[in-house]
């Protein structure tokens, strides 16, 4: 059975962005894709803690990840700004 993928809710996206570390990661990803290690160093958190933050961003579709062909162990994260659109539209209505 194929699992249907649903869009994250506005509450999920805002909840993910409520954390200052995740906001810092989103800001960095807004500039260009980054490897996980680069992000951990830039925001000043241990890699294991950053991994949990990245999982939240992936779960609400604020970020996507790929594995470079030259290093299958590495993960490169990039901003998926379509997930921000509902939050931005909601804020614009205020």
UniProtKB/TrEMBL annotation:
The UniProt keyword set, sorted, is: DNA-binding, Transcription, Transcription regulation
SUPFAM superfamilies documented for this protein: Winged helix' DNA-binding domain
Q: Which Gene3D superfamilies match?
A: Winged helix-like DNA-binding domain superfamily/Winged helix DNA-binding domain (1.10.10.10)
Q: Which residues lie in coiled coils?
A: none
Which intervals hold domain HTH arsR-type? 12-82
Give the matching InterPro entries: ArsR-like_HTH, HTH_ArsR_DNA-bd_dom, Metal_resp_trans_reg, WH-like_DNA-bd_sf, WH_DNA-bd_sf
A Gene Ontology MF term for this entry?
DNA binding
Pfam families attached here?
Answer: HTH_20
Q: What is this protein called?
A: Transcriptional regulator
Originating organism: OM182 bacterium MED-G24
Q: What is the lineage of its organism?
A: Bacteria, Pseudomonadati, Pseudomonadota, Gammaproteobacteria, OMG group
